[in-house]
Design a protein that fits this description.
By secondary structure, the protein is mainly beta. The chain has a domain of 150 residues: Thrombin, subunit H (Beta Barrel). The strands form three sheets. It has a 22-stranded antiparallel barrel. The N terminus is likely disordered.
Length: 573
């Protein structure tokens, strides 16, 4: 079996073949034009042809209105407005993740490689060129001329080392909760945030965000049962885990709190998955774990899931792309069988212009724990069609169907995390990216179930301001009114965030909701969150968070302080 170094050398050698013609013609491309922007993602007009590779980092600047030479932008006084990380690369284009942005990105913005990525590209270029020349080495004995002749007949090329990227934060929490009934508790916890790629030169990665806590009751209250706060529920929606992804291996592995990449409609799984490519386009695998996400339609404490799937994928984002997943799964509650169902998830898209997404689950007939009978048939389905004729205008058409009542936590309605479940039936919407970093959006539909005496209107209105006047703050406001099988009500929410400096960030959120439902007695609630994140040195940071919540049956205040250590940066092993 070839060594890891030889495997890496072979991989890099294939990539280098795409770079040689560019170098032969002159200096490599320095700036890369943004050709499309979507939420959290940027598409560049450059790919392997310009020497770009996965995990390279870039900064984005906005060219002057006068339209001078692009090279002058880099050395002008213009500050970078965002940082990007390359996710995937095609021959003539690439997809980048927006790591942070100080302004809303636009088409025709320019991205350039950070110094570490420039060095990476140069090293790979030099390694490829070295293949064309004999390597002269120094010997401590023997005839140097004879040895040189022998070396020229079998050239040896030193393969560049596998690059490891280690970035992350670990912090220790201390805080408290004060309830209206007189219960006070101390809170101790741990925060982990990591972006570790190619650990130790391997193909293992560790990425994600997790926060957990442990309570120590101090005074008051009855029963000693810790309160589950809004912050705790939000923490359960985070994802973190180990992933093994090797372009030369048919095997993919994930362990942690994560989505199944081929079927995210199953929601978060606290466990793992194993997948193997059966061919270039077909992947088979299995998965299992608990289901901790309270935003899942079928959330239940002590619930576990296991199943198997097969996926077919073809095409790419530069043209027609298709992904189709089919599988079977079973859930258990307290290790007693609860559901046996088949699931299907399909995506069809063409460039940025249109996409069709569909997911559905069909259950086998069963008798629930309470004796209720369920017939075999379709349990839930969600279909959405998105059309984007121009980059600043998006239309969508959605259809939701749910046969069973939901079990998600209704306390999260006002956070916006449950919007996909609030509208049942047919709905449509529009999103417009206007000048001045202003984006209004609206969704309207009619809801009808077999238990409704008449149809009702569901409404969602929102507005995002990427730049609030000249303050540099980002504002998002939205309002929703809904009538679904689990209840009827409304909510409104607002959030404001601002990077005061590169090391200091503040964020404030607030909202209120009214819910008339048999699922909860907390019919009316209001909340406010505030967060300050301060990196006061190259290696240390502090966080302070405060939550105020008041409701019909649930009222409390919670505060958390965090002291932590930042580690990593770009390294080569």
């Amino acid at each position: 079996m070839p060594s890891l170094v030889r495997v890496l050398a072979g991989i890099l050698g294939v990539a280098f073949l795409f770079c040689i013609p560019l170098h032969a013609q002159g200096a490599q491309q320095t700036f890369f034009r943004v050709k499309y922007v979507s939420e959290g993602t940027v598409y560049l007009e450059a790919g392997r042809n310009a020497g770009l590779k996965e995990d390279m980092r870039l900064r984005v600047v906005r060219p002057a209105d006068s339209g001078g030479a692009t090279e002058a932008v880099r050395f002008s006084s213009a500050d970078a407005i965002a940082e990007l990380r390359v996710l995937s690369v095609a021959d003539l284009s690439s997809v980048c993740e927006v790591l942070n942005a100080r302004a809303e990105l636009e088409i025709a913005d320019l991205a350039y490689l950070v110094p570490e990525s420039v060095s990476q590209r140069t090293q790979e270029q030099n390694a490829e060129e070295a293949k064309n020349y004999p390597v002269v080495v120094t010997f401590t004995n023997g005839d140097p001329l004879d040895e040189e002749i022998r070396e020229t007949t079998v050239p040896h090329v030193m393969s560049p080392p596998a690059d490891t990227q280690i970035r992350g934060r670990i912090g220790f929490d201390y805080g408290g909760i004060q309830e209206s009934g007189g219960l006070n508790s101390n809170q101790y916890g741990l925060l982990v945030q990591a972006d570790m790629k190619r650990i130790g030169g391997s193909w293992w990665n560790f990425t994600g965000y997790w926060r957990g806590r442990m309570n120590a009751q101090s005074s008051g209250g009855t029963g000693g049962i810790p309160l589950t706060t809004l912050t705790d529920l939000l923490n359960r929606t985070y994802h973190v885990g180990f992933y093994y992804e090797n372009p030369d291996s048919p095997v993919t592995i994930g362990v942690g709190r994560l989505y199944l990449p081929w079927a995210p409609s199953l929601s978060t799984i606290d466990g793992g998955y194993f997948a193997r490519k059966l061919s270039r386009r077909v992947t088979w695998g299995f998965f299992g774990g608990s289901t901790p996400d309270p935003t899942s339609w079928s959330y239940a404490p002590n619930q576990h899931i296991a199943g198997t799937f097969v996926n077919f994928a073809a095409g790419n984002f530069d043209g027609l792309q298709v992904s189709s997943t089919s599988g079977v799964a079973m859930t258990t509650i307290m290790w007693h069988a609860a559901r046996e169902f088949a699931f299907f998830e399909n995506t069809l898209s063409y460039k940025r212009y249109w996409s069709i997404y569909s997911s559905l689950q069909a259950d086998q007939a069963r008798t629930a724990a309470g004796g209720q009978q369920y017939n075999a048939g379709l349990t839930q389905s969600f279909t959405t069609v998105r059309f984007q004729p121009v980059s600043r205008l998006t239309f969508n058409l959605n259809y939701n169907y749910f046969r069973n009542l939901p079990t998600f936590d209704p306390a999260l309605i006002s956070t916006g995390l449950l919007d996909q479940y609030l509208f049942q039936g047919l709905s449509g919407g529009i999103r417009v990216d206007l000048p001045w970093h202003m984006t209004p959006y609206v969704d309207i539909g009619r809801s009808y179930t077999s238990t409704d005496s008449s149809q009702s209107w569901n409404q969602l209105y929102g507005l995002t301001l990427g730049q609030l006047w000249k303050t540099g703050a980002r504002l998002d406001v939205h309002y929703s009114k809904f009538n679904s099988s689990f209840g009827q009500g409304s909510y409104d929410a607002v959030s404001v965030s601002r990077n005061l400096t590169e090391s200091l960030r503040i964020e404030v959120q607030g909202g209120r909701q009214q819910l008339n439902s048999t699922f909860t007695s907390n019919g009316q609630s209001n909340f406010a969150n505030a967060l300050v994140d301060w990196t006061f040195s190259p290696r240390y940071f502090m966080e302070a968070a405060y939550t105020w919540n008041t409701g019909t049956t649930l009222t409390y205040q919670q505060w958390i302080t965090t002291f932590g250590y930042r580690f990593g940066g770009y390294r080569q092993k």
